[in-house]
Amino acid sequence: MITTSGPASDKLGLVNATPPAAPRRLPACLCVLRWIARLGSLLTLAVVLLFAFGEGLNLARFTPGELVLFMCFPLGVMLGLALAWRWELSGGILAVFSLVTFYGVNWWLSQRFPGSWIFIALCAPGFAFLLCGGWCQLIKTHSK
Does the pLDDT of residue 44 top 70, yes or no? Predict the structure, then answer.
């Protein structure tokens, strides 16, 4: 404990100052899950960009329904995965919400769901970020 006297020490906050508590370490499995989600998001971004540029993406030829689908997947999912690097819970929610919206809009437009599992697989990092963010919130809530 640091104790000094005088007005200057009061202004500096040195009177009866105690060192701050050491930050709590996150569980190792949470750190591993976080990095799996981050690496998975990079892989997802690479795969989507390869498809987009490899196929010669031309938004002018999209129908209005296809543009809405494109805004959900891949744009909404990619934005969510990028945001999740800083804000895991918010980014995970956006990525998963965009995927669910993609499936809903696809059903509304064609009365069927996409027949491939690839959309869910490419959004898997979003689910992992959602789990990480929720777990961190739970730790913060219970540590108070």
Answer: yes
* Number of domains forming the structure of the chain: 1
Structure tokens at 38: 């981050």
The whole-number pLDDT of residue 58 equals 86
Domain span at 60: 26-142
CA distance to 9, 50, 94, per residue, from 15 (Å): 6, 60, 47
In a domain, 49, yes or no: yes
CB 129 within 8 A of CB 37: yes
Q: Which two tokens stand for residue 44?
A: 């997802």
The residue assigned the tokens 């031309």 is 58
Give dist(CA 21, CA 92) in Å, integer.
30
Residue 120's pLDDT is 96
pLDDT the model gives residue 4? 55
Residue closest to 48 by CA, chosen among 128, 121, 113, 116:
121
